[in-house]
Amino acid sequence: MAAGEFDLIDRIRARTVARDDVVLGIGDDAALLQPPAGMQLVVAMDTLNAGIHFPHDTAPADIGWKALAVNLSDLAAMGATPAWCTLSLSLSEPDAAWVDAFLNGFDALARQHAVALVGGDTTRGPLSVCVSMFGFVSPGRALRRAAARVGDDIWVSGTPGDAAAALAQWSAGGARDPVLRARLDRPTPRVTLGLRLSEVAHAAIDISDGLLADLAHVCRASNVRAEVDVDALPVSGALRAAVSDVETRRALQASGGDDYELCFAAPVAQRDAIFAAALDAHVPVTRIGRIVEGQGVVATSNGGPWMPVRTGWDHFAG
Amino acid sequence: MAAGEFDLIDRIRARTVARDDVVLGIGDDAALLQPPAGMQLVVAMDTLNAGIHFPHDTAPADIGWKALAVNLSDLAAMGATPAWCTLSLSLSEPDAAWVDAFLNGFDALARQHAVALVGGDTTRGPLSVCVSMFGFVSPGRALRRAAARVGDDIWVSGTPGDAAAALAQWSAGGARDPVLRARLDRPTPRVTLGLRLSEVAHAAIDISDGLLADLAHVCRASNVRAEVDVDALPVSGALRAAVSDVETRRALQASGGDDYELCFAAPVAQRDAIFAAALDAHVPVTRIGRIVEGQGVVATSNGGPWMPVRTGWDHFAG
Is B72 within 8 Å of chain A by CB? Predict the structure, then answer.
């Protein structure tokens, strides 16, 4: 069903979450927001392009979910509390039914985290979704990439590799596991875990490009080395069932992108607190290595060096 | 020249404006910013897609300028002080020379307004530029669309119609006036004027979709009617020289988009203050009508009703 730009905006506005700190939301030249006193503002922005960041056959509701999820994941990796977002939606034609389906996914996740959509635009162009996400953190509490310290444990949440396995299955055109596909299409941003970790961990990053590649960003920023025991990487039952070859599976776990789990560095003394945080956040966490002096990421298996099939996910090379 | 995503990010980071209120800029999962105490946060977001919002032959530097300008214009229309922005850049291939040229235009305007680029992403996809812009306004000072009052004068800055004339010349493929084309490619966001107007005007909007169409948004939000004297619309020398037919010219002035001038409503008692503000901001302003009781926008010429050839610019219809 064709619709004008303003019809689409009305549809979007009708479904947004209400918040007291939104002075003026969708419908003016810009939104007016009241940040809480004494807090730092945390801002992330990520775009999803059709065929690059999601397969062309992805359901509109899943695109809506994922566009918000990847941005919430960035805030989770800072240990921030999300509050508001803006959305820029480019569509090849103004299709009200498509937008309604998109909003079903977008709003479901927005409501989980009480995030208000306060502005943005809808426009004509190849299918693309850009979201900016805004939240807060107490000064000094953010989980920066540059704050890992020698002696820290390295942890990961969830079971990385699932999303990449779904993408590999989709590319191969064979059997497709719906559990894995759901991990690709509807990643769970670890917002609660990130909030709890801001009290006990040193550094964090979310896994969008692949565990080892993202961990390398932490090492570079912190001027440290990471030793990762590939044998310790948590594996989901779905991944184990879908990929029988151990080395292929490990490559997906270590280098597959799009999981939006958190990889974080924390003092050894905080192990109990981290398990308690994970319990509160309803997500498993696994200790996979440690921070040492040096540079780069070293992966080992059975005590020897290990190399994955591919080492990351560059959106210009992928 | 091909480059990886991280090379491009390094190029972008190297050129951003420094500000004391940027706690952590480009390079982590999200930016950390320190909003000024007691101020409201103003947030806008606009996307430019190739072939929709700018002709395919637009110079990269002009695309960079315009992507920032249209967002600064949104803040100007709120009477806000700009501070920070984020940039999501989708490119069909990672071309470092293209990005450098783009940044030449983007940074030139960012430096004029001391706006720091604090985050975003670069990714693969059809050429598209999404910018989010953040600024501040004192509580109660924002120029809302809903605040026009019966009896107000209606004003416009600059000379609307120039950008639409350039687009018409480009579409026709004939003679092209470089002055008009510069108004299309390098619009001047009226930031200083907007700031000064926040002290004296009631309501404002920037002209992105066409003067009468954008003024209709103000009328709808304020529940008033606007009477516009088309004979009073300011016309540039370049437009007069390029378009000899009066009615065609008026249609461009009244309905052409992409000018990013401000249309605003202000009390009659503020006329002197508005001319003083315009003098400070180095932009002419013209009184073109008044706000009355009723609804909608009525355009007149020589005392009789007047209708333009087209009535607006919907990005899904344009």
Answer: no
